Every structure is written in C-alpha cells, then in structure tokens.
Input
Amino acid sequence: MSVGEFSGYNSVLLSYRLLCTIVREEIPSWKSALRNIAGVYVLTDTKTGKQYIGSAYGGDGIWHRWVRYAKDGHGGNKEIKALLKFKGQKYSSNFQFSVLEVCDLNANNDHVISRELHWKNVLLTREFGLNKN
Output
C-alpha cells in the first residue's frame, strides 16, 4: 500500500490498514507530525458508525497511542477490546482514525483530558458510541 506524505492535521483520515502501513514503515513525515502533538482523536467503526473518542498527551503524543492501535487493533481500550473479542480481530479493519483537536505536546494533561470530555459530550459517544467513561 502506498502512503503519501503527511499533509496536515485537518486532513487526517486513515483506515486501519493505512495506519498499520504508516506505523510499520515508520513514515517520517507522519511519525514526526503525530509524535509532536498531544490532542483528541476519533476512531470510527465504519460498519456501525459508532465512535470512540480518545486523547494522547506527553511522550510521543498521538503517534504513541496510534502505534498501540496498529499493533493490537484496540489500543488497550476495554470497549474496543470487547468488540474485537466478539467480532474477531479482523474486525479492526473497519476502523478509521482522525484528529479532532490538536494540543501542544507540553499542554497540561488535565487540559487535554478536558478537551476529550468535551468531544465525548458533543458527539454523544458515551450514549451511542464506544466510550463508557
């Protein structure tokens, strides 16, 4: 699979397969861009439309979180892990990833978490999506 250069945070819309390719090949423009920001992201199940809102802060930012998804499909999230246990590991190929909000990597963790909570409320992902917290 061919992956283009990173073209900006507002353009990020990655299938699970494309994310896995970016992580496996450690494409420099993507790795650099995603490891230098904290922020809020959305994982969408393209079969059901259900969304999961997550955040990343400190360390290698969003890159670190998305590497975990690429490795196991669930990134350690309980609801997604349960979904994959029920549907099978290959179901992760129905996921797509996007950045909702970029934060400075040095932003206070509480600030990033408050922005994550904001997006959960906006998109109702506790009631109709994959967030339970």
